[in-house]
Design goal:
Helix content: 40-55%
CATH architecture of the largest domain: 3-Layer(aba) Sandwich
Structural class: alpha/beta
Shape: globular
Strand order of the largest sheet: 1-2-6-5-4-3-7-8-9
CATH class of the largest domain: Alpha Beta
Number of strands: 12
CATH topology of the largest domain: Rossmann fold
Number of helices: 16
Order of helices and strands: HHHHHHEEEHEHEHEHEHEHEHHEHHEE
Length: 372
């Protein structure tokens, strides 16, 4: 095992932020390998509880080798932020994980739709989630959810029933089945898509881990559908995080007398899109102006992935703006100026050139997205 991978496994195991790894990489990992002290770990921005855990793991000496061996035996992989297979969308998060454990194949760049909601869902909610999952699969969209009971499981199952690809982002390690009754579901997800976790092998299902993993669901998706959620539900965390990342939020209206729908109804009140017709929803997100797919006719393949190389004739600034729009979409001129560091005239010039080249289009009042 090379030293860089050893350090990344250790840092990831104690939930050190990606910025800690970037800082350590910049100054050199030699001091860390010689035996990290409190001063070094504090300088990397690692929390006290994480520092204590990291010191324990470092004291074991061969923990990284044993961890990688456990991962290999489970036929999983540890994908780091420096790996080309690491999902670029996750880098939109304020602090992405240093690495991910993946069992199966994570389609990191294809269009993806999160389907989230309460574990204690109604029959109606379960039916809608499964139907949305089926429709998304038929449209060629990967479904991302959390592998939990209720809405999550229904979205995964709907996608799988249509031969689609789905990813379950877990609040446990990828080698743990939680809840236990999802053993066959997780096996099928791993065969047709991926089980994904940031937690080391063997990590159990402590309650605090599940809200924490919701940021990964928000990061991995291009859009999110909230089917049913109470006001304090975990899917509300996912929706808020997704909104902060510039993702589009759709919500299924629920009965105003049902507490299980108060959160999702509140999101509609606050401006989320109301999903009132599944066929219409799929048509909207599949059109050019929905940014997900282009219609090439019956039996055609999907449009090229958003990661296709831009034309060589584009300037460095134009390529930077295009990449921002491909990763986020729905950005205003002010957003692009803040995120790219460009001035008003430069950003406006880049948008004009990209629109003229049919690489970017207006996706709403004052907003721009990348075409395919």
């Amino acid at each position: 095992m090379d030293d860089f991978l050893r350090v990344k496994l250790l840092l990831n195991a104690c939930k050190a932020p990606l910025s800690a790894w970037e800082s350590l990489k910049a100054q050199g990992i030699e001091a860390f390998l010689a035996g990290p002290d409190e001063a070094l770990l504090k300088s990397l921005g690692i929390r006290p509880s994480s520092r204590a855990r990291l010191m324990e793991l470092c004291a074991e000496r061969d923990w990284p080798e044993r961890e990688l061996d456990r991962t290999d035996k489970f036929e999983a992989r540890f994908v780091t932020a420096d790996d080309p297979d690491y999902p670029s969308r996750l880098k939109d998060l304020p602090q992405p994980p240093i690495g991910l454990y993946v069992k199966g194949r994570l389609d990191a760049e294809s269009p993806s739709l999160a389907i989230v909601g309460t574990r204690r869902c109604s029959v109606y909610g379960r039916t809608v989630a499964e139907t949305v999952g089926r429709a998304a699969a038929r449209a060629g969209c990967q479904v991302v959810s959390g592998g939990a009971k209720g809405i999550d499981a229904a979205g995964h199952r709907g996608c799988l029933a249509e031969g689609g690809v789905t990813a379950a982002v877990l609040g446990t390690a990828v080698d743990r089945v939680y809840p236990a009754e999802h053993h066959s579901l997780f096996r099928e997800i791993a065969e047709r898509g991926a089980l994904v976790s940031e937690y080391p092998m063997g990590t159990g299902g402590e309650a605090w881990r599940f809200p924490d993993r919701n940021r990964l669901i928000a990061g991995l998706c291009g859009r999110a559908v909230v089917v049913e959620s109470p006001e304090d539900g975990g899917s509300m965390i996912t929706a808020r995080l997704a909104l902060n990342l510039g993702r589009e939020i759709w919500c299924v209206p629920g009965r105003i007398t049902e507490s299980s729908a108060k959160g999702s109804n509140a999101l509609i009140r606050d401006g989320a899109n109301a999903l009132i017709d599944i066929d219409d929803f799929i048509e909207k997100i599949s059109s050019r102006y929905g940014q997900m797919f282009l219609d090439f006719g019956e039996g055609s393949s999907l449009a090229p992935p958003l990661t296709a190389e831009p034309p060589a004739a584009l300037s460095a600034n134009e390529k930077a703006v295009l990449e921002l729009l491909r990763r986020k979409g729905g950005r205003t001129l002010d957003d692009l100026m803040a995120e790219s560091g460009l001035g008003f005239a430069e950003a406006q010039s880049c948008l004009a050139a990209l629109c003229a080249a049919d690489l970017v289009y207006s996706s709403g009042p004052g907003r721009y997205s990348a075409g395919l």
